[in-house]
Amino acid sequence: MIKIENLHASIDGKEILKGLNLEVKAGEIHAIMGPNGAGKSTLASVLAGREEYEITAGSVDFDGQDLLELSTEDRAREGLFLAFQYPVEIPGVSNVNFLRTALNEIREYKGQEQISAKEFMVRVREKSAIVELDAKLASRSVNEGFSGGEKKRNEIFQMAMLEPKLAILDETDSGLDIDALRIVANGVNTLKSSKNATIIITHYQRLLDYIVPNFVHVLYDGRIVKSGPKELALELEEKGYDWIKAEVDA
Amino acid sequence: MSEKNNIMNDTIQQNKLAVFTEGLSLSNLAYSNDLKQKALNILNTLDFPTTRQEDWKYTRVGRIASIKANQTAHNSQIDLSSIRTESKLLFVFENGHFRSDLSSSDMPKGVVIKALSRCSEEELSLVGSLVNIENQVFTAMNSAFATDGIYIQIQPNEIITPSIHVLHILSGDNTASFTRNLLVCSDFAQAHIIQEYITQEASSSINNVVTEIIVGVNAHFTIDKIQHEEQGNFAVLTEQVDQKKDSTFTINTITLDGTLVRNNLNIAVNGTNCTSNLNGAYLLKNNQHVDNHTLVDHKVANCLSNELYKGVIYDKATAVFNGKVFVRKDAQKINAFQSNGNVLMSDDASVNSKPELEIYADDVKCSHGSTTGQLDEEAIFYLRARGLSEKAARNLMVSAFISDVLDKIENQTVLEKVQLIIQQKFAWEF
Predict the structure, then answer these.
(1) Contact: B387, A103; criterion CB under 8 Å
(2) Does B428 map to a domain?
(3) pTM for this model (two decimals)
(4) Whether residue B382 sits in one domain with residue B264
(5) Alpha carbons A202 and B365: distance in angstroms, whole number
(6) Rg (CA), chain B
(7) What is the pLDDT of residues A186-216, one digit of tens each?
(8) Residue B299 falls inside a structural domain
């Protein structure tokens, strides 16, 4: 689904990603863990197409397309979804209105018909139930006045509405209480299929109690320095990152 | 500088207004000749305002002054199907002249609607009673040269349900239209009026409009004012409102076009327990200049005023907002809220926003705020990351921004019409 090779990216002349390699296949869940400042959120930003980052080397193949050549919106239309670490509040723009616009723009891009009002409302009802998001919240202004947990649930609701091929969850678990965490995880698990894939970026192991990854990767100093099965997460939780740093720096 | 030079300068400056008014004819309307004569006398002492005058600091009227003014009626062919009105009560004026051929003739019970030219001296006795013409070039010109306008009198206790739609069309080159309106919503009456301003094949023309409005005791009166005169034309409009006690007055001023538009909205709250709502939206592009001057004068106690003006400014356009709220010495327990927000869509767009509160009472609740900024780029990125094009993302955000004001328009036909104009002009979606 996505193949990242030797990716180098910098911001304001400072290199953050220093040769990152990662391959994710359909049906898989990958967790990317790592200490603060390792480049986790940079990876998410670069994949989503944030323009302030400069790609200095490497390639990203997304289902046969050169991802780095696509605009942010075209990446979304091709099926990439980023759940934001800090979802943005947009006063006055209603959640459902903007999702209808988004869905229709994606459909237009794919040469499909616009979604009917009825079909859309059915989908809103069905998908908001997955993340236990109140229908009233779904029609309010995007994230305005939402609690931290509601914002993150709204991200997963949007993901459910847009049905991406690849979802990248950037620190979706941070700041969540255990109920919200369970709801978010349940949403992700419900949406999982053999045709889509998920990359979970986190620094806590906790989320992985609810979402079981196929692979765990450690991102440190701009590269993936260690990969392993789900047990690696437990080891990181127990021992911290110092032993990895020592291994790498040695 | 020699005395001779001074005299020459004066002469040249005086000439602008004198030249402008030279070929204009004195009003034939039945309002008082004293007012007409007084206006002429005032005009003889004045010139067009300059930016040295506080009231005109940000608005240059040089382009208006250079119009070779004529008051031709034109009687153009006009296709009313594009006007989108549901109202059976449509009254049309072209260049300040009544178009009876395009206007409704049936009159519902409880209201008198007619052109000023068909009014008696008695009916027009209130003309000039509210508006100030001292030192005011535009209201003085209107008082001297008004050709026609709408007279509406809602009778006491009457609730008029159909909206009354008054359409003002500006046409031709170098037209100077002087439109005078008198709107009286009597005690305990209720009505909704649409004042719409458009152009048809007009250039370098100006509509100078004065509307005097009396809102009676416990009356409910709403005006939707929609301005979309084509660029290349000018408009200076003054509304002077007198609110009696227990009344509610609402005016929604929506400005969507015009090269230079100046709105003077003055509300004198003369009775207690009044509510005054002033909402404004302005969407500007190219080199447009729109100046909204508002004044709410709280003369007595226990009243509420709400003012919300918002603008989106593209290209090299300029917006001016000057909102003044007076609370007089004995006007206690006043709640006065004022807010002005602007979004600049280009580096060359500009706004001069000046909220002014002058409070002489000590037990009041007043607030004012002014914000000017650009769209939140992080929000645009967020929307794009969901598949919206950059343009769609920006349009969605500005339409949300302005919808705060548009949502105040209660009449669905008017709201849909405004949204349609915006869609056509700016390609926004609602």
Answers:
(1) yes
(2) yes
(3) 0.87
(4) no
(5) 49
(6) 21
(7) 999 999 999 999 999 998 888 999 999 999 9
(8) no
